[in-house]
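Box 3.1. Reading complex inputs
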Amino acid sequence: MSFLFDRSGLLRPPGAADEADLVGSCIRCARCVEVRPYQSIRLGPITALRSYGTPFIDPLGSPCYLCMRCPEVCPTSALTVVPAVESAMGTARVIEESCYSWTGTVCNQCYRSCPLKGTAIDLDDLLQPVVTEACVGCGVCLHVCPTEPRSIHLVPRGETS
Amino acid sequence: MKWRPIARKGAQVSVLAMLVAIPLLSMARIDFIQGTLCSFGTESWSVSCPLGVAQTSLASRTLDAGLLLSGFAFIALAFVAGRVFCSWICPQGFFSELGDKVHLAVRRVFKRPPPRPDTPAQYRRGQIFLYSFLGAGLVASFVFGVPVFCYICPIGLISRAIVGSTYLGTVGSELLVVAIILFVEVSFARRGWCKYICPVGALYGACTTKRSLTVVRDAHACVGCHTCERECSMGNSPVDDRVGRTCTNCGDCVDVCPEAALSQPLVQLGKKASAGVSPS
Amino acid sequence: MVGCDCEGDDDDDGPARTVREIAEPNIEASSWHMSVCPYCGVGCGLDVGVADNRVVAVRGMEDHPVNRGEICLLGQNLLGILETDDRLLHPMRKGAGGMEQISWDQASDTVAERIRATIDEHGPDSFAMYVSASEYLEEYYVYNKFVKGCLGTNNLESSARLCWASGVVGLVKAFGGDSPPCAYEDFDHADLFFVAGYNLAESKPVIFRRMMRSRQRTQAPIIVVDPRVTDTASRADLHLQIKPGADVALHNAIAHVLIGEGLIDEGEARGLTDNFDELREHVTSFSPGAVADVTGLTAEEITRAAHMVGEAEAGLFMWGQGLNQSSIGTRKVTTLLNLVFITNNVGRPGAGPMAITGQGSAMGLREVGALPHLLPGFRKVTEEQDRAEIAEIWGVPPARIRPTPGKPISMILEGIERGEIKVLWIIHSNPAATFPDSTWARRVLEQTEFLIVQDAYHPTETTQLADLVLPGAQWAEKGGTLTNSERGLNLIEQAVQPPGEARPDLDIVMDVARRMGFRDEFAYENTEAIFEEYKRCTTGRACDITGVSYERLRRDRGIQWPVPTPDHPGTVRRFVDRDFPRGKVHLNLYEHQAPAEVPDDTYPLNLITGLVGMQYHSRTRTGKIPALARAVPEPFVDMHANDARVAGVADGDHVYVESRRGRVRARARVNETIRAGSVFMPYHFGSLSGPDQAVNALTIRAFDESAKQPEYKACAVRVVTT
């Protein structure tokens, strides 16, 4: 399972309450999992302890595309409806040392795939990707990054890198 | 065959089928309804597990009007009809009842005497444990900030195992807990989980009043054969007018009574306390 | 920088200059070979690292003038195309129980016999060959000699037809000959970039970065004309979000403003062109206000664009499939070239029409004449002297080369349908996925009496339909030369042996030719001998490479023709002395014309197909590389929010896109990156990608009037929820 980032911090769906509130208020009903159109939300396994049965996103498997459907069906305050630009899941950072576009191969997949293209990830004058403050941490860039290992470092909200 | 057992099995199987169908529908891109017995509904309405509502409200120390409202449906059901959730809806109840059949068969095979109904003292002790456990869990939810019962509640575990194995492609490791519970119930403790531990059932039991649906004995028709008492897997004894908060209104006693002395009158108005419910 | 003819000074260009290498972990390359990226027409130089007959590393060639070490995502992932699970390793023949492996002897004999039999019975024109536009010059030369010189039919067609036919016909109509005048160096000198229907940010990333690097230094403005807000358009100073198909009206309107407001030097324009006053007269009715409706642009936008064009000292005009892939593609291209000429943007550094092809050898195959109307050295089959000259070099009777042009692919397929063409030999191309109305194309290919498909992979949408498949070598498994889009020649060294029984394509075709009795014609010792013979065809022609040899190509990278002598340095820029083939260039006068199929009540949206940066063509190479495939795993459809609302579609929904010809299941992407009324889908997906995924099942069989290029950018569709 590759959902473990930075000391087991989970990437939570958009509009998620802070970690302590989320694990308390989530009723573990899986409705966010079942709502379409994407199949991005997973449920914490029993080994996730406090996060058992709570929703998280594994961006390497399927990132969040900011369809914003999951908060709409959450019966609790675990996920609240917010505009996509305020979904505040985390923050991505480009690892420039291994990023194609920063090392001579024009790539820009992260920029092209970013749901907030031009806002959260922009390109500098030489078409090198730069993540801005507007990044909500949806993980699409991490998902599509063609380098191995990926040249995006994604820190879930509440975690420090 | 009476209508009630068929209807009840039908309802229980339908609920299980729904638990499987919802994630399958979602996979087929039909997602207007989502959820499990912990909470289900559409974008415009929700029905949630009242114990889940209570726990998460305590754990997150917030009160959410919409959430409280969504938990009210099953509470209202319990007010009207007692623990019918346990006998008509609960998937664990379904498995537990099947387990009980196995338990009885095992007893016959090993030439053990049929189980005896709980004595009033045993019944009382069981109830004390049941409600202490419920109370302790709610306190623990508040203290630890997580809904503690959700880790052991077979209803949620079964629900999430189904979602996991259909939709997420994960192995339903949760079913291990369910299997242990069933093993204990089959081997030692007749419906022990439902009777002595299940906090969801306890909560519904706590909601029953004198006005709630229950089993009523016609003392004139009753010949005192005790068939009903042997049939009840939840430790009640209609023949002695001891039908307590564990009664799930499954109606099995009504159906087995050779004299048709038992009934579940829908309207309890005007009944005498001695004729029916005497919650211990 | 304008006017400076020196190499661009690039010392201050920031950090993106490291050579990056992608390599198999833990394997050290024991030898390095020079190569060129086999994908697009830019022609980036590559170093290919080999160990134990395996390509284990690929990196941008640091001292290559085209890319100077930089490459794009596709080139970066070239390692992944050679050792795939679906490599075709043996010749196979369709038998009772599916495809059955046969020996090369059996395969070559079968092909030779079938071609011989059909030609004897039905005449040479009952045979046709359709080749990809990514083969090497030597290969095209051999195919050409075999088909036109030996078999006596001109039915040698290439997939360049789907890609740059309109552009080339446009260049020929305007210049009087096919000779792209510009060099990539012009990116460093231009002070205006006019980009029409061209998303080079995704299709030519290395060139796009070069353009951005230049702009960083010169602040040269960029005008992009595109119905979509592409990555290119989003970096433009002026984005004209035109209604699809209205380019002729726009170009004429810009000419109207340029002439009307005196933004050009009319005397210069008269000196350069042979019919300036006709154009002047023609565009009077194309005022910006008059075309506002048809173009969907405001008069102010058009006027502003005209002013930017008029004020530029050196404007570089680029176009892509938005212009070419249209039933009026030639009109669009020639009217754009009108703007180039009346602003005198030709023959000077930084100025001119920059035509960068989508396929690696789309320039080279034209020089070699691997098209139905051409012979080597830009000669025409219709010219008696051209035929005689080539027949002499080929050593075949002049009468054997037919004086009538062969068939373009659309007519080849129609010929198969009518039963006129019996045997079709396809080399490294996948028309069952890429031809418009692909359901029809598949049906026709399937009914071909004998379909030979030579490819590196099996199955593809086309090899699936074949009677005989031949395993061809891929890229680094064969050697040869490529001409890039600035007329630059480069050598690709064979780095490894092909896998299994696969052979270099040259060997396959020559083996068949020899079995048919053409031994003397194909008595080459090696690939270089073929190159030397081809060179003789170019002497004195526009594409003169007499002064180039393999030895020189190993030393000098990217020598630009004409190169008449060994000490000639190559020609960076054409027409510096205004030495046009016809003396002057010609202005083409056209009216706007609507596409063959326009949206109506039943099919209310216009479908534009195009590429995405991480895929190439029908994904036979790039679709198997997870790093590339995961970003776009299935077809998507970009819809404007207004259109989505009408169709009841939400972002992320799966929908069906339906046309009169077929339907495709796609993921809806609702956004504002496309003009309302149009939808966009990537064209990469074929029937092998999954059920209802063949995007070309939607497109229409409408073709440019002169170039016969299909119209991939306009057909009527509707979007329905699933």
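In summary: Chain C touches chain A at residues 13-20, 60, 69-73, 75-77, 201-202, 205-206, 208-209, 212-213, 215-216, 231, 234-235, 612-614, 627-628, 630-631, 650-654, 667 (CB under 8 Å).
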